[in-house]
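pinned: reference chain
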Amino acid sequence: MSAVWHASRAAVKRRRVQTIVIGLVVLCSTMTIVLALSVLNAASSPFDDAFARQRGAHVVATFDAARASPEQLAQTAQRQGVQAAAGPFGQVVIEIPQPWLWMAAGPLQVVGRADPAGPVDRVDLLAGRWATAPGEIVVNSPVGGASSRLLGSKLKVPGVSPLTVVGFATSMSKSAGAWVSPEQMTALHPTSFQMLYRFASAGTSGQIRSELDAVTAGQPASSLTNAQSYLSLKEAFSASADSYLPFMTMFGVLGLLVSVLIVGNVVSGAVVSGYRHIGVLKALGFTPNQVVAVYLGMISVPTVVGSVVGTLAGTVLEQPILKVAFAGIETGTATIETTPWVSLVCLLAMPAVVAIAALIPALRAHRLSAAEAISAGSAPKAGRGLLAQRKLGSTRLPRSVSLGLGQSFARPARATLTMSAVVLGVMTVTLTTGLASSMVAAGNAGRHSGITQVAVEVGDTTAGQSAARPSDSQIEARLRALPGADRVTARAFTKVLLAGNTDTVFLNLYRGDPPAAAEQIVEGRWPSGPGEVAAGPGFLAQHGLAVGDRTTVYLSGRQLGVTVVGKEMLGNAQAMETDWATAAALAPDTSAIEYTVQLAPNTDGQAYAKRVEGIDPSLRTSLRIQPQNTATTTVVTFTTVFTVLLACVSALGVFNTVLLSTRERRRQLGMLKSIGMTPRQVMVMTVTSVAGLGLVGGLIGIPIGIIGHRVLVDHAGVLAFPESMKDVWHAPQLAALVLSGVAIAVLGALIPARSAARLSIATVLHNE
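pinned: its structure tokens
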């Protein structure tokens, strides 16, 4: 084994470029796979573990206090299928008149509860103590956000004495924004009751609906006003991570394929170019197994180094990546931590995969005898591919072209390896160009080339003007009346509480002409009446909603049932969009804070903005030129760089294979030159030997890339693409992609072909 190690180390030093390439490829692949597995693991297990530990509620049900009594609700805990229950707890939504703690002004859901423990939803106390007397309140806080210095803060609620913060807590079920004692809840005059249920069967949404129907059977009609399923919380917990996962998985698989392909190619090349070295080793007494061990050892050194460094790099980046992936969602005590088993699996699995990829070509060295290896018989064996070569030779193709095409049949395994490199390159080009096209279309949605928009913001109402300030409707009318105005959209927003959620969300209200977001509806339609809302995929995923679902929003003691009628392409993950008519039910005194004016073509935006100042000095204007789209530019730049890099890697794979072939066929090339083949014909023959493989590889790689593109755009959780943005493939583009396979093969073959063309006959045949 000492001799094997010395021979392997010498091989590593002799092939430094190949060693560095293997190490870098394995490093990048290992790092990508570590991150992909970490995101996949973190998307489920932390939530499940914390939910089980806190005995989270499968359903948080809210009942109208005017229709159901506490006695009636208490009886539901004895229904068949209920594993455990807690409640009823009094519940009320209070309005915070001004920013308080880390929360903005707006609604706050408060529940009256005597004890944080219990059979369901065991609330974790993070700081301070539980509220046990009137005038005390415990606030729901993100883990790590509670601070002892905030204890004692006062909450001024209209109509009751100020409430003192005595503790911070968190609930896996997100059952409340704050808790008070039952006595304090009585003073707040609860409008509803809360029941917490754990069911024997709650694995699917269908089972939960069935169990809930059985529990509420016999209750007064319409008494159940809301039911929050834990499955929605779980989906919200991993919604952001799920949108990253398809991309990371795809790139991880691509990295792994690159590793296997390059390692197999390098080992095959080392065996072929080292026939004489193998023969010498065997002549010196190395057994066939020891010769195989030499080549596996040569690969193992950079592989192990690359795996270790890649695992360390992935582990270092793991926590920041997970923090970004799960940003904006906090559910109880479910914390995202690094998982040692992921690093251990990658550290052990990557060298094993690479060793298997290297073993197949290394076995060729096992079969060679010492005499055969030392001899010059490295050309293809007689009879291999002769039938195909004869048929090609009988055609009208130039002899250099027919000989080149026939070489693929002489070495089918090597031809397959070369074609695999081309398939990988074309697949990547197809995938990334498709993504770029979809993202460009998404970035341009709702944008009109050459159209100028003027944003008009309502400033300080006490701007010092002597005349009376125009009203909201008067401002909109005057903006429309100014010369050059084509479309005017008024916007207001308010913070509301969504039923079943303790966090407030923004509600954007629009009046006038439909905003640009109305052109980005991918499912359903834009809201056009009271109680209709639209939202982006991120918002819908985090709140467990879909087009057609109904929910309830609360604001200033008012509540309104709303229906999701549209799904936006992107949208804000913390906001819904609605028509101005909804304001009549929730906030009748709402006024616009911003107007967007789209100007007619060829209108001077600066002149229009100047005229706006004459309407009201408090109005502030800014121009928006539509063609600018930095996000699209960033995506196109990234995909272009990624395409070029993967295409270069594929071309290097072709380069290595062609270089091996030219070295292996030195004597054959010398013989062809000696009978009159010119250097140009040698170059054409060498390039043609892989051009056909490039064409076939392109035809195979295109559909694979199209499928990969479809999978990614269908599972991009933060962005919903309409069908028109997914269908980005057209005949000219597909033809160019087919030619890209030929281009990759030709580029990879050019340098070895030039080298073969320059071979001297005397140098090649000096031993004949």
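why pinned: Residues 327-334, 376-380, 461-466, 626-631 have pLDDT under 50 and may be disordered. The chain is about 50% helix and 20% strand.
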